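Hi everyone,

Forwarding the result from last night's run.
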Amino acid sequence: LLLGARCCPGKITVSGLVGSSTNWSSWSAVGSLSLYESLPASAAVNGSNATNATGGLVDPGTRITNGTLVLALIADVLAGQDHFVRLTLTQKSTRSDGLSKSAVAVSSGPCIVSTGFTVRLGCGDNTPFRVGRADIVNPTITQFSPFPCDLNRIEVRFSTTVPIYRQCAAVLTLSGLSGSLSATGALGANSFPVVDLGSGSVASAGSWSQAGVLVLPVANPSFLMGFNDSTRPNRGGPLSGAPFAMDFAFAFWIVNPSSARSAASVNMLVSLTDPLNFMYTMQATPTTFAGTPTSSWASDNKLSMNPNVSVAGSDAFVSKVASLYMLSDAWAPQPGDALPLQVRSANLLNQTLIYQSTPFPCDDNTISISVGTDVPLLIRSGVVGCVPTFTIRGLTGTQTQSGLLSVAPNPDTIFVQSSSWSQPTGELGLMVANAFLAGSLYGTVGGKVYSVKVSVTNQAYPQSAPALSISVPTAGAWLALPRSGSSTPVFESQAGDAMPLAIFAARFVRKSIGQTVPYPGCINTIAVTVRANVDLVPSNCPVFLRIFGLKDVGVSSVSALPTSSRVAPGAQAVPMTGSISLSGAERLAGDGSTFWLAPGTCDSSVHQTADQLRDSAGNVGMGYWENGYVDSVSTLVASSTIDSSLYGGTGFSTSSSCIVSGGAGYTSAGFLTGTTNSFTIDRRLSVFVNQRVYANTDLVFQFQLENPIKAQRSPSISVSMQIGVDRFNTTQFVGDSSVTPRSTTATTASSKNYMSTGCALTYAVPMDKDNTTVLCCTSCSFARNAVAALASRNDTSVDGQMTNQGDAEPLKIHAPFFCTKRIGQSSPFPCDNNTLTVTFMANTVLSGPNGSVVTISGLTGANAVSGPIALYDGPAGLGHHLLFSGGTASNFAAGTGLWNNASKKLSLFLTHATSCSQTYVFSFRVLNSAAAQSEPVVQIEASNIGQSAKIFSNGVSIAPSPVDHDNVTILPPVGSSPYIQAPVAGDASALRIWSLTFRAAVAQSSLVPCSLNMLTVTFASNTPLLQNSVCWPQVSVRGLSGVTAPSGAINVSAWSDFPFSQAQWDNSAKALTLTILNGSVTAPNKNYIFSFNVTNPAKPQDCQPVSMVADVSGYRAFGSNSVV
């Protein structure tokens, strides 16, 4: 058929072309056809007119309307000739099978009806307006950080079974990512950054909702053709591959939740909207990888939102965990780490540990914490839950007040320098500081352990280690905090003591007490050594020590104190109640290179530590002494009082429940006024520790007191040491050996009550008294030396020493006595001047003036005028004689005694106090009696020894006891040898007086009867013959039988030094008597010769037994004789 413009109307109409979304965007034709209607400029491609295939001008007014194409004939059309028109139309977004042949009609006006045209349709995918099904295939979603609060890169990849063209305005909606910390519209609408990972097919920004929805335009404005990734599997296109398939890949960043959670269920939806607003949606659930990510995943390090910039470790998994991890490490990649929004829970590393530096009460305790988690804990300022804080709970048992604790500097300390602290709950908050980077954020690194130390002060009260828990960021629960099972570097520490706030119960390792002087009334140094198993830290807790039971037993109870011996009013004790030095009788000791102060007077290597103590007023090296406090009352009546005029002390006071103050002076037990209710007294010492004393270190101090004047056994002595009260009112008492090492059980104060009436509830333990030391310098004892304890001795020995106790046991007091009491003389000669030398030593103090009196009695054979008698110093010239006088009146001068010639005793009144166990020597002079005698029993005694005259109404005395005579000294001989009687040992015994002995001979001049016969007598005596107030010696020659001379005076002839006066002859007694001249004396062992004349008898006779006798006294009581 020939069609042409001249024959028929110049157009052909093709109808039924329904199925496109828009008009054509370009067209072309071959032959004689052209568009009939003009095309609107807005529909032109690129704003220009299209041209046909032959170069003919396209009629701009021709168009397609409602699926009808009107073509203009611009040339003849031959029958059977094919003509081609190519139109570029926009497909609809929805799937369509395309046109059917019956739907298309072609007509050409009245010339040719539709049946005149042959219509052929493409088949299969070439069917006009056929639209294939668009599906999402192989969708995946992957995250690159499973860590709380981290900036998590989410990568999305998917493909479509058909290309996606921009005319469909494709939009991707990714939902299910709820729970992130990325806020809605944080960067404004359509400004949420998205990075295309190479497909060039997604927009650079989308819209984000914190509900977990990302809306993202898929095709960017310049997209014309789909991107095909040949490495991706077939999407369902032609068998030759997938030329029409398309791959999409992009990434975006969101902030992970602050706490652990499981993976999100993500849904992917792609909507296609064509120009006619037909919409088609594709929906899929992205595939996730639940296994363990690879090392390449862990090291992926794209930085922030720019995929073109990479910084090693900046955003990679490996930059936030400890390096060189093993796959078995908890901080290595774990199964599920790549699942979207799966956030790990922070778990404590095995190396997490807490321990303490000291288990001692009141000590400064360093709590060391090593903590780490298997995930990084990242700081995101201003975001709730992203300022990680470790909270430790249960650190109870400190006295550190609530507030902020300083964190000790440490090279890897990642915590803020001040941590929150609550004392009642023991809660410590350790906030992670902006100190180190984990990736691109500040925080901790997963798998790394961080160490931190805080200092607290332990409470005074002991306790077992409390259970501790820790709140780990993101964990959402309290976990048990591992505690160290090791020991601490302190005394007796064993495994387990490093557990924080295990606080030891204090106990005495040593609590010994001893003395240096067991003598009554003497100054005694009490040495105390205490050692505790814990440090004593007075800077944190006052440490108070009190020693009880230092009793003067003789006055402590009514039963021990007879009425006649009650303490006199106003008696003063030594020391008085008040401050007392804790240095005692210290001395300088050393080892040749180092020197120190040692306690006491005996050898000791112990160091004095009194400077570590103080009294309540803060005076270093001082304590507080209470000389007589009331420690018990049998029955206390309200408003009861104590009459100090009866019991010595002053300052007693009472309350309705107890005696609250003791006596200030020397105090005795007694009765409450107007009652029969008795009270007892005690003495005690109180001190405070002034400096830190380390565990198992001796605290050595001593103090001096005046010993009781009466013998007593060492009393039970107890010690109380109180640690605390601390800042929170806890305290503990130091226990005895019943407290086992490392015990955490407190010793209760109710165990012993020293104030039974309720004033003070104090726990105390018996002290260990020194029962082994044999004291030096104690020869003035009954045993002549000190003794150690011995169970077999009689514990009631009256001498006070030889009991079963040792002399070093405190306040064991010997009975007062003279340990040295010796007397000697200078002459054993009758009638001679004799110097008696007295040597004595007492184990007590003899006080004066107006105090002690020493009496020496039994001086039989000594003669002196009654009254004051001069005393003379001992040989050492120490002036000992001046310690005495003859009385207490002012007219008795020092250096005299009081002699009683009738009772033959010497009384010595002390003018000054003597020292304990010191030798005193003095002498006095007497005339020996005429009669010979052995040494008499001389006794010595003392009254009102020490301060007893001021304390007790009847004082305390030393009973008379025999004095030892000097039986050792050999007096020098007098005269020339040969000696009639040479001095021997024992002759120096006081008042041993020799018997007079003569060595004599007589000769005559004639043996003729009745003749005048001159008798010549030669004699010498063993002692001098002295004429004095006591003696006027006479010598008589007797036994001159047969001779005669007139009785009466008779002439004698003698040498010029003959010391005798007239001679008397007694003719009846046949005896001649000579009397010594007044004031004369004979020399012992010297021969004296005299002669006198008598008449021989007429009757012959033998030699007669002649004797020489003497009367030393002058009373002719002749008795001493020697045969001539």
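The longest strand covers residues 622-633.

Cheers,
N.
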